[in-house]
Design goal:
Number of domains: 2
Number of helices: 2
Order of helices and strands: HEEH
Shape: elongated
Largest sheet: 2 strands, antiparallel
Number of strands: 2
Distance between the termini: 32 Å
Structural class: alpha+beta
Strand order of the largest sheet: 1-2
Oligomer: single chain
């Protein structure tokens, strides 16, 4: 079942509000950048952005270092790990 058809939810109540000109104008004033990654049925956050190495619930993949010291991503996203210093 998609989010739009989930009981009590609608697209208008979430992202559809951004189509409202007054909301869009307010968002534009804030000048923030957002990286929105929708992983509908995709790989788990434990295998990408939040690896838990050495734990029983960490998943089967190893973690790899990124450019920022102390930050690790899952081994499935090496290209993103290489540019992690540019992510805000």
């Amino acid at each position: 079942m998609s989010w739009d058809r989930w009981p009590g939810r609608s697209r208008r109540s979430r992202t559809g509000r951004l189509l409202d000109p007054t909301v869009a104008a307010e968002v534009k004033k804030q000048q923030k950048q957002v990286l929105f990654i929708w992983l509908d049925g995709g790989i788990s956050q434990l295998e990408t952005w939040d690896p838990k190495p050495g734990t029983e619930f960490g998943g089967p993949f190893r973690s790899i270092p990124t450019k920022p010291p102390g930050v690790h991503f899952g081994e499935l996203v090496p290209d993103t790990a290489a540019i992690a210093d540019k992510l805000t």
